[in-house]
Specification:
The chain has four helices and 15 strands. The protein has helices at residues 7-30, 37-50, 124-142, 150-163; strands spanning 54-55, 74-78, 81-83, 97-106, 109-118, 167-168, 174-176, 183-187, 204-207, 210-212, 218-220, 227-229, 235-237, 240-245, 248-251. The structure holds 2-amino-4-trifluoromethylsulfanyl-butyric acid and cobalt (II) ion.
Amino acid sequence: MIICKSRDEIEKMKKANKTVSIVLNELKNMIKPGVSVELLDKVAEEMIRKMGGIPAFKGYKPSKFAKKEYPYTICTSINEEIVHGMPVKRILKEGQIISIDLGVRVDGYYGDAAITVPVGKISDEAERLIRVTENALFLAIEEVRVGNRISDISYTIQSYVESNGFSVIRDFVGHGIGSSLHEEPQIPNFGQPGQGIRIKEGMTFAIEPMVSMGSYEVEILEDSWTAVTKDRSFAAHFEHTVAVFSDGPEILSLFNSSKN
Ligand code: MF3
Ligand code: CO
């Protein structure tokens, strides 16, 4: 079941997403060669708790069959890591790219967003990967309109990414979000247009394209969380939480948005 939210509920989601955007912006400003990813996690958790929020990923179990709970506040996925990389003792090096994913709960409602950031000077191709992935997210958000279908979002992401010579990761999806971190519907990042449910006012989605420079095949590392590209090509990830209004989408997780 897809839950449509009231204005009141969307206001609560704005609060959670505001925290997400403030923390992500702070972490982004910390990224440079020599910084430990462990520190990023500490700073994130401290900031969130100071602002009265609760880290949403920490202790999260994707299903009751999952081997173990996710133990950190943020996911930090470096280079060929796509998503769910863990902020363990590692030092960032010049030329790397790092994706930071963050979910927060405030007042019973969730916010979820992700960014990919260069560490110092990176290759032109890595720059292009980051730009194309972020563009794909914003093009996809334009499709989040009453009357469109879920797969219009998916198709927009896939066609834009592939026309730029990259591939879309197929094993992970965007999702509904609200008083749970993950709600229906699933929002794949590939597919034919015109399929799936129609988008209605009050729906709230986390849209999250993941893009690889090489093939879309995925492997999960020993830690049972970190997803990497099988060919070890670089991958980027951007995510925003978006609400559907009668006159179009509103991004709840934009940093410094006048609306939040
Ligand atoms: N943004 C990702 C998602 O929505 C991150 C989840 S990390 C987890 O699935 F620990 F919560 F699984
Ligand atoms: Co998400």
